[in-house]
Amino acid sequence: MCNVQQDIETQDHLFLHCHFARAVWFGAGIPILHITQAETTVDIWIKNLIKQYTAADNDYYNLKRILIILWFLQNYSNNAGKNGRAGYKVKTTAWKPDSNWQVIITTAADSTKNSARYGIAYMGKIRHGQVVFVGCKTTTTQDSRIARLLAIRESILSASKLGFQRLIILTEDRGIEHMWERNNLCRWQLSTILQDIKNLQHQHHLSLTIKTTPVAVIKESKSMALTASSTFLDVYCEHSMCRP
Q1: RNase H type-1 domain: which residues (predicted)?
Q2: I want to staple 106 with a disulfide (CB 3.0 to 4.6 A). Which of 90, 145, 206, 218 is the partner?
Q3: Tell me, what DSSP letter sits at residue 117?
Q4: Quick check: helix, strand or coil at residue 12?
Q5: pLDDT recorded at residue 35
Q6: Domain residue limits, the chain
Q7: What architecture is the 103-242 domain classified under in CATH?
């Protein structure tokens, strides 16, 4: 039982509707599966986690993940509904995802200060958090939005290659989300790659959702993209046993 929202824990609730789970899965790097198997409530689990930390340990990572969890929960609490129960949905989750989604993909593009090109990266995970594919490559573009769209296109190609058809793609670029939802280009230079994405959707019969997310959510992909901007890379790996 999740005592943040008083909801029974299902995979959908854990992954997309529980603010505690979002903090754990996206920001704190703690496997949710281990928590659910522990059969404990959120507050007790956090207290036990804090007790494990001492200044003498000098465990920065452990302290950071605790603070991330508390920040997510406090942000949720600050936006509680008028009925006295936290009923507000954070903007990044204020939408109804495809209940049958198969894979969620974080995408990113980044460039070092002195680099003349952008690196792109993406990572696909299934419902219980297992990584099923990862890609990272160097591009020739110097445009951040084009690079982010390239990352999205590459991630779709990888997902469809493995047989996934119901995708949720996360990007830090709100403009891309708006373009996708409203079918409205902000620059003509983006038309070709956006049309490529639509063609892939049609060709592979994809249910495709593109949403904006905080940078903290895509930090792993962001880090890989930054590396690819300074060192020539074209890397892809997959977990072939995790096909739908």
Answers
A1: 127-203
A2: 218
A3: S
A4: helix
A5: 55
A6: 11-91, 103-242
A7: 2-Layer Sandwich (3.30)
* Whether 103 contacts 126, CB under 8 Å: yes
Cβ within 8 Å of residue 12, ≥6 positions away = 99
Q: Give Cβ neighbours of residue 51 (< 8 Å, ≥ 6 apart).
A: none
* Pair 136, 41: CB distance under 8 Å: no
Q: Where are the alpha helices (H) located in the chain, listed in sequence order? A: 11-12, 19-22, 32-38, 42-52, 60-78, 144-161, 174-182, 191-203, 219-230
Which conformational region is residue 196 in: left (phi greater than 0), alpha (psi within -120 to 50 degrees), or beta? alpha
Round to whole Å and give the CA distance between 97 and 181. Answer: 14
Q: Tell me how far CA of residue 136 lies from CA of 123, 124, 169, 236, in angstroms.
A: 9, 12, 16, 6
Tens digit of each residue's pLDDT (9 = 90 or more) over 65-94: 666 666 656 655 444 443 444 444 444 344
Nearest-angstrom CA–CA distance, 98 and 168: 8
What are the tens digits of pLDDT across the range 102-156? 999 999 999 998 888 999 999 999 887 789 999 999 999 999 999 999 999 999 9
Q: Does the global pTM surpass 0.70?
A: no
Other C-beta atoms within 10 Å of 88: how many? Answer: 16
Q: For residue 161, what are the CA distances in angstroms to 72, 103, 147, 190, 239?
A: 35, 13, 21, 24, 12
Q: How many helices (H) and strands (E) does the chain have?
A: 9, 6
Q: Which residue reads 């209940």 in tokens?
A: 99
Helices 144-161, 219-230: axis angle to 10 degrees equals: 110
Contact yes or no for 97/104 (Cβ under 8 A): no
